[in-house]
Structures are given as C-alpha cells and as structure tokens.
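anyone seen this seq b4? input:
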Amino acid sequence: MSQTTIQETVVTGREGRAAGAFGLRDKLGYLFGDFGNDFFFILVSAFLMVYYTDIFHISAAVVGLMFLIARLWDAVADVLWGRFIDTRKPGKHGKFKPWILRMSFPLVISGVLMFVKIPGMPDGFYVAYAFITYLIWGTLYSTVNIPYGSMASVITSDPVERTTLSTYRTMGGMLAGLIINVIAPLLLFVNNKADAGRFFWGAVLFGVLAISCYIACYKLSTERVTATESNENQAAFGRTMKGLASNRPLVWLLVVSLAFMICFMLVGAVNVYLFKDYFGNAKALSVAALVQSLTVLIAMPMVKPLVARFGKKKWWRQDCCSHPLCMRCCTFCRI
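predicted toks r here
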C-alpha cells in the first residue's frame, strides 16, 4: 500500500522571517480568494444569459446548449488541470497559491471579453464569439479555482481550523454575491433594458475588484503543510479514478453538488428575467438579493462554534429534518 507523509513546515517570506502560526491573516487571505472568484462567477451565473439573449440576440435554446457543452468540457478540464497541479512541486511561495496569482490575470481578461460587443456583425458571429469566449473563461476559471480549493489543506492541518477556512471562504463568496446582486441590477440596466456599454464597464469594474482580491489572497495566506508522496502513490492516479466509481458516498456527494450548482445558476438567471419581464423592474432584484445575502452572512459565523461543540457529523444530523428520504440519504452516506 502506498503511503503519503504529511508534515508541518515553517515557511519563510521574502524577508526571511518565519511565517508564524495559523491565524486571522490566513482566514482573511482565504476569504479574499472566493471573494475574487465570485465577482465573475456570480456575474456570469446571473447576468450572462440575459446579456446573450437581449444584447447578442441569441436564442435561449442555443445559449442553453452552449452552457451544457461548456459544463461537459469543464468536467474534463478540471480533472486534467487538477492532475497537473498535483504533480507540481512546492516552490518558494508554496504549491498552490502561485498559480492563483499567475492565472488570475488571463482569467479576468477573458471574463471582460465575454461582455464585449462588436457592432454590426452577423448573428452567426455573435454565437461563435459567445461560445469561444465562454469556453475560454470556464477553462481559465478552473486554473484558478482548483488550486484555490486545494490550498486549504496546506494552510493548516487542523480539521477545526480547516472548517474555519471553509466558513471564511463562504463568507467571501457571499460578500461578492452581495455586491454583485445588489449593485449589478442598478448598474447594468437602463429603463429596464440590458445596456451593452454598461455590461462592459461593469465587467471591467468587477474584474479590477477580482484582481485585487486575488492579490490579497496571495499576500495574506501561507502554505505551511507539505505532502511528500512516494513514487507508488504518484503513479496511483489510475487506481484512484477507478476507485471513485465504487465510492458511493463520494459519487452521491458529487451528484448533489452538481444538482446544487445547476439550481444555483438556474435560479440566478431566471430571477433576472422574472424581475425584468414579469415585474417590469430589473432594479428591484437588488432588494431581494440584499435580504437573502444578509441572512446568510449573519448565519455564517455560527458554523465554527457548532462544529467545535458537536462535530460535523452530529451537527449535520441535528439539522436533519428527519424526513424518511433525508434519513435514508444520511444512513447511506454514513455521515
């Protein structure tokens, strides 16, 4: 059986000083990572479809097909990039966070390009342009999000502290969602209609904010844990992929995660049409988003004390509604 040795290391910065123990600096740094991610992810999830249908005049069916193809490609790109990152050796500043800084600039540029409209072009051009730029953005998003998600395991080895990082990550995403969902409807629409110029400058604004957050994530967080893998373990990728099919809890977790992301993106896109076309006031979406985001932000700090007191397993089961279907899922996944 292959073995992997995990060890805590002391990391020094450019000035040669010890990085210090895990603390608030790392939590804020990790928060900024998803803060930057979600500036564009939520903008795309909620407003890109209405941009394509109302400004590029692409039919909703074609946009849906384009999104489906992009998601299928993402499944391949994520695995390939994850494998590539896994084979890299840690450098002076760590293994994962340098990739966040390197790939954040092309990611943001590709995001802005999605909201560029070249006037006077035929319909086929807009379809091709939308598909290519969206596919490029999705691929580059993986190059930042995968190392960012992996970075929590090398910032600290303590399970409770990792839960704290997860909480701060969620808070970062919620802060971005609060800004996007509250400000974007006021910024992007003129007289209840999507405006191409405002979409472009909105993308530039959120892109600058995203870059600033990525830089903060790079500067504030420190990778302390290194994993030394044996040659056998490094060659076990095929066995790992084969084992995924027999890991029923993990398969169900992936299915639930996929369903959640589909619902999240669907609700975000549909809400824009609901307020714009049914209620006749796209800017009113800001009020609904403000109430929703503030509710989640208030609840997020409660996660750590609950996990520390009850543990993830007991806390989850105390939240369970005891519905037969839920209880079956909990028993099946052994959580």
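The chain has a mean pLDDT of 80. The chain is about 75% helix and 5% strand. kinda curious what u guys think
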